[in-house]
């Protein structure tokens, strides 16, 4: 065969190989419309949880504080979104810097370099970044339940900005970034499917530290402090339940089997938690209350959050039942110890997150453990995974607790955080917003 023919054949083969590789690359990064549609829906559902939380918390405080309490959640939607877009996403999902304490990627600053990025799962990176941003919003808003009715608004805003930067972002990087040290701990990392350590334990522990540092509401516990609107609390709880499907099932970052598994586990745990709380309350107090029902829902949802991707429905139900019992016990303990965790941020979110993150180990589906065992020489056992889970929980507790205490001191000594006596007695609505939630002259 002539040399020219060989050259033509080789040249044709080269271009064919190049075209094939480009086609495969394009196919690999093509948008999966089904997964993208679900992630857009999940992002919306998680955002819905924040007004749901505002209603849940707002109904539990006194009339004079309802609007101010709801503003803690709504204000977080504004300030934490700006913080997330500017530097938060980069700190959480960028490459390790400062010894892995945080991440950093200049392309992620103001999301400037992800305009056309499509993730391996076929989801635009914009969608992933916005989905994760909703977690950064709701976590500091959860903390506010622990010190409701006694903080000034300016101090609260400064506190959640600092807390987001120095507590949430590092924890998020450690647990969910591919080079985070907890992500790579053990055979398959510390299991936190949707935020047991990153969201609930960090918020719950930080809330407890803040409640103790700031002291109780004036008059607590001698003066009865009754909810102003349990109907609103029930509606808020219902919105949280609905939104949690995006919170958990959306964390699969896909639309497939793992999505279905997480969604089913979420429903199972919520229902089991609600029923078990009503039974416990009925046996202990003789009545099953509406607040008890929705508290059980939240306990179950919190406990299954880290576990939703690895447990089957039976295990999810057990976690919901266990979390209800343990959370109920801790709320009783709070009343005896007389620390003022106003809306039980630690009692439900902190304790429920700890229960879920640790006890999920005993309900991991067999296929997940087999995959983990195949990744290390000598295999991988449940006891080894339990050690990883306990380590991650302890790290989250200590880090969030210590950093929160430092931030509380800094904010209190500079702009101030605890309300003055006159402001607290007048109520948050009028003192910090010049409004009244219900327009009532004699709000109390």
Note down, in words, how this protein is organized.
This protein is an all-alpha fold and about 450 residues long. It has one domain: Ammonium transporter AmtB like domains (Ammonium transporter fold, Orthogonal Bundle), CATH 1.10.3430.10. Helix content is about 70%, strand content about 0%. The protein contains 15 helices and 2 strands. A two-stranded antiparallel sheet has the order 1-2. The relative contact order is 0.14.
**Distance between the first and last residues' Cα:** 98 Å
**What is the N-to-C succession of helices and strands?**
HHHEEHHHHHHHHHHHH
- Overall mean pLDDT stands at 92
CATH class: Mainly Alpha
Number of strands: 2
What is the percent of helical residues? Answer: 55-70%
Which CATH architecture would you pick? Orthogonal Bundle
Provide tags for this entry.
444 residues, mainly alpha, Ammonium transporter fold, two-stranded antiparallel ribbon, 15 helices
């Amino acid at each position: 065969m002539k040399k020219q023919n060989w050259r033509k054949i080789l040249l044709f083969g080269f271009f064919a190989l190049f075209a094939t590789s480009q086609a495969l690359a394009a196919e690999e990064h093509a948008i999966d419309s089904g997964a993208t549609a679900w992630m857009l829906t999940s992002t919306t559902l998680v955002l819905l949880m924040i007004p749901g939380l505002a209603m849940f918390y707002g109904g539990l405080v006194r009339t004079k504080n309802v609007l101010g309490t709801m503003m803690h959640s709504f204000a977080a939607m504004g300030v934490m979104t700006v913080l997330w877009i500017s530097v938060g996403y980069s700190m959480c999902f960028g490459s390790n810097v400062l010894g892995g304490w945080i991440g950093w990627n200049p392309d992620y600053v103001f999301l400037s370099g992800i305009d056309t990025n499509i993730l391996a799962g076929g989801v635009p990176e914009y969608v992933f970044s916005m989905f994760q941003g909703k977690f950064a919003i709701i976590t500091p808003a959860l903390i506010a339940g622990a010190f409701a009715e006694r903080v000034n608004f300016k101090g609260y805003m400064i506190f959640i900005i600092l807390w987001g930067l120095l507590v949430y972002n590092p924890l998020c990087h450690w647990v969910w970034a591919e080079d985070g040290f907890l992500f790579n701990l053990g055979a398959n990392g510390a299991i936190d499917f949707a935020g047991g350590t990153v969201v609930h334990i960090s918020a719950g522990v930080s809330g407890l530290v803040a409640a103790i540092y700031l002291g109780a509401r004036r008059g607590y516990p001698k003066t009865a402090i009754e909810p102003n609107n349990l109907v609103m609390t029930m509606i808020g709880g219902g919105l949280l339940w609905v939104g949690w499907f995006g919170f958990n099932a959306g964390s699969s970052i896909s639309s497939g089997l793992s999505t279905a598994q997480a969604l089913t586990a979420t429903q199972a745990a919520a229902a089991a938690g609600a029923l078990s709380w009503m039974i416990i309350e009925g046996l202990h107090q003789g009545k099953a209350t509406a607040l008890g029902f929705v508290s059980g829902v939240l306990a179950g949802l919190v406990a299954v959050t880290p576990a939703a991707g690895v447990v089957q429905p039976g295990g999810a139900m057990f976690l919901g039942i266990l979390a209800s019992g343990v959370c109920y016990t801790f709320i009783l303990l709070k009343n005896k110890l007389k620390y003022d965790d106003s809306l039980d941020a630690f009692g439900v979110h902190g304790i429920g997150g700890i229960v879920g993150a640790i006890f999920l180990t005993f309900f991991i589906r067999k296929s997940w453990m087999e995959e983990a065992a195949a990744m290390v020489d000598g295999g991988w056992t449940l006891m080894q995974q339990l050690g990883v889970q306990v380590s991650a929980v302890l790290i989250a507790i200590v880090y969030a607790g210590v950093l929160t205490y430092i931030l509380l001191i800094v904010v209190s000594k500079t702009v101030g955080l605890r309300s003055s006596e006159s402001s607290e007695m007048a109520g948050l609505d009028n003192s910090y917003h010049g409004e009244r939630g219900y327009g009532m002259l004699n709000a109390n």
